[in-house]
Amino acid sequence: MTDPLNQLLEFLAIPSVSADPSHKQDVERAARWLGDRLTGAGFAVEVVPTAGHPIVYAEKLVDAAAPTVLVYGHYDVQPPDPLELWTTPPFEPTIKDGKIYARGASDDKGQVFAHVAAALQLAGNLPVNLKFLIEGEEEVGSPNLVPFVKENRRRLAADVVLISDSPMFAPGLPTLTYGLRGLAYLEVRLRGLARDVHSGAYGGAVPNAAHAAAWMIAQLKDPMGWIRIPGFYDDVVPVAPEERAMWSRLPFDEEAFKAEVGAQATPGEPGYGILERRWARPTLDVNGMGSGYQGEGSKTVIPAEAFFKFSMRLVPDQDPEKIADLAEAYLRTILPEGYAMEVIRHHGGDPVVVPTSSPPMQAAAQALEEAWGRETVFTREGGSIPIVADFMRELEAPVVLMGFGLESDNLHAPNEKFDVINFEKGIEASKNFLRLLPLYLKGGQA
Questions:
Q1: Could you read off the pLDDT of 154-197 as tens digits, one per residue?
Q2: What angle do CA 105, 106, 107 make, to 5 degrees?
């Protein structure tokens, strides 16, 4: 059998960038590569075409009486730009100091392939029925995945959905994520003039879209970080005291956190610790903005147009559509006179919290503990995986978020990496979980 690490390096070398039309054939090649690996292990495989990029579906049903596990992941990756900041080429996987450097190494090729490698190693000795659903559009909002899930509920039926697209809390510390924040994302476009005009001839007499955008951005939050959108906090569920107590025992170092990202301060809502602000409080962050002349030197114009984009991370029980409605209504109240405004809603997702006491979560905790030799910790995650709520709603199955990456893996940034030890331990943990799940579902424990 081919070594799993070499297989992963081969997988990572395929530039499956879903957002770039020039890589469409590469995305399809990655889907076929995955399908070929699973076919060789005896899975029934279908590479399903969609209006965008293919979905790889595979199943191996060994016993009608055995539980069924559905593994979800994605094989598409973010664009590698800016290329000049990579120390090694993003699609020439390089192992250095025990780390694999490549685009997609941690997000999500390395993590999902740990489960594929576990299935390849178990081959004819699977203790459960195993299904894979691996998409090629996660990095562009998964536009075709939910329709596929809705149309294939019976085919995808499972006792648990297993996902590895999240981080461990610290190196060597096995971690299960039990909560994800939701997301609402808006883009605002302003126009105050028919065209850019001369700042000397027209200055002081016409609207300036850049000024308007800056002023509106400043009205979104107060100086302490409180979001000013009326009704924004109405449905927020406070964190339980036992959760705060659990998080207080985690090995979190604020100074190390600041050093990791190069921050001089950690601003945010007063009265909440950093972990609570990252995991269990809603946020609003401007993600991009632009207007006017941005080239070399000077150009004395008043810009006719401006734009800004902002994301709102949501917590239970905030509804993304309701929050987007509230935000848009507020934007209209703060829009300065003399501007036309267009509000564009981009992809979103519901927040999720799953019980840590469920049999699948307890099986996963033991599986990780056996692999790493340390007690598993439970954390929430500040990011969003919108499909998790869809799986829970459409398949009525519990979800286990078993992450093998690290916060420091440079996801979506240059020099993305994945520790070799985490890949190897991930394979071991995946095999452990498949072995332990039937015991836990029967009410027992290994």
A1: 999 999 999 999 899 999 999 999 999 999 999 999 999 999 99
A2: 100
User: DSSP letter string over 92-155?
Assistant: S-EEETTEEESTTTTTTHHHHHHHHHHHHHHGGG-SSEEEEEEES-GGGT-TTHHHHHHHTHHH
Residues classed as catalytic? 76, 138
Overall size of the chain counted in residues: 446
385, 73 in Cβ contact below 8 A?
no
Q: Give me the residue label for tokens 């081919």.
A: 2
> Quick one: pLDDT at residue 314?
98
* Per-residue pLDDT tens over the stretch 326-355: 999 999 999 999 999 999 999 888 999 999
Which amino acid belongs to residue 127?
P
Q: Which option is the CATH number for 3-179+351-442: 1.10.220.30, 3.40.630.30, 2.40.170.20, 3.40.630.10?
A: 3.40.630.10
Q: Which helix (H) or strand (E) holds 39?
A: helix 24-40
Rounded to whole angstroms, the Cα distance separating 26 from 12 reads 11
